[in-house]
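User: quick one, sequence for these tokens?
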């Protein structure tokens, strides 16, 4: 039976910045529109965190029962390691999704934006369908696309909309930026797992691109995400503080290009998560400081 510490480890806390980052950016964009709603922002953050934790447990379960994690290098996998029974991990994943949907429904009621229920259902279906079901899209090389859409566009623009009732250019730029960094995090994870994924028949985008091009795509995604803020600089000069994040990207980028041992890529996950959090903080700060400039 898994211990509480192992369940927490299985939640993969290092991935949580990917859930918080779009909420921070979306909230800052709402603030710039003079529509900051702290309760709505808090609910959006809780929903995002629960969905991230839920998808982590769901992936643990689905990959575990398929045997994908039998020779995995990286964080503990509850099912793959035999630490927890598969059905228990599945129940925890579903319970986490259910709680996320309940809080999401509260947010919908507050905003009276009933069409967002469909968005919420889509988020849960995407979370489960990544590695779950008969034809998981994560095994087809589409995981990166869905991460960009849901952890970038949907999460960021949804946060702004539930507070301001509209979206803006900064929210769109921020959504693209944080979505790219979240996709880069997934790419780093999948590059590390290319050998075992090939054996398991899991054709991630990293597998399809090949080791060299997959590594290069990681660097490209980080570069585009950070340089995009230049678009906002003419009317919002403080947005250029996001460029201060460039030095923090050099080490993980170097490791991705030059790290040949699978274990050498493990730190890149943590570093990329911190980059995403740093990006969201600097992006948000730039919007706040530029407001009324």
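Assistant:
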């Amino acid at each position: 039976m898994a211990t509480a510490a192992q369940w927490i480890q299985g939640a993969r806390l290092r991935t949580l910045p990917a859930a918080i980052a779009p909420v921070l950016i979306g909230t800052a964009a709402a603030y710039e529109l003079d529509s900051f709603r702290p309760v709505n922002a808090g609910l959006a953050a809780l929903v995002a965190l629960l969905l991230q934790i839920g998808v982590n447990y769901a992936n643990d379960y689905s990959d575990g029962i398929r045997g994908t994690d039998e020779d995995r290098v990286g964080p503990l996998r509850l099912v793959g390691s035999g630490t927890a029974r598969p059905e228990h991990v599945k129940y925890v994943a579903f319970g986490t999704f259910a709680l996320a949907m309940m809080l999401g429904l509260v947010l919908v009621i507050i905003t009276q934006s009933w069409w967002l229920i469909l968005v919420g259902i889509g988020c849960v279906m995407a979370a489960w369908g990544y590695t779950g079901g008969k034809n998981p899209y994560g095994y087809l090389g589409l995981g990166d696309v869905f991460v960009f859409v849901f952890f970038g566009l949907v999460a960021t623009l949804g946060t702004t909309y539930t507070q301001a009732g509209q979206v803006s250019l900064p929210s769109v730029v921020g959504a693209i930026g944080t979505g790219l960094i979240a996709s880069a995090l997934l790419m780093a994870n999948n590059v590390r797992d290319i050998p075992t994924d090939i054996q398991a028949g899991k054709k991630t985008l990293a597998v399809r691109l090949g080791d060299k091009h997959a590594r290069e795509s990681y660097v490209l995604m980080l570069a585009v995400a950070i340089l995009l803020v230049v678009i906002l600089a003419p009317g919002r000069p403080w947005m250029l503080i996001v460029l201060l994040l460039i030095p923090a990207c050099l080490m993980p980028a170097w490791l991705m290009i030059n790290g040949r041992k699978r274990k050498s890529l493990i730190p890149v996950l943590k570093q990329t998560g911190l980059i995403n959090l740093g990006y969201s903080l600097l992006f948000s700060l730039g919007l706040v400081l530029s407001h009324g400039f």
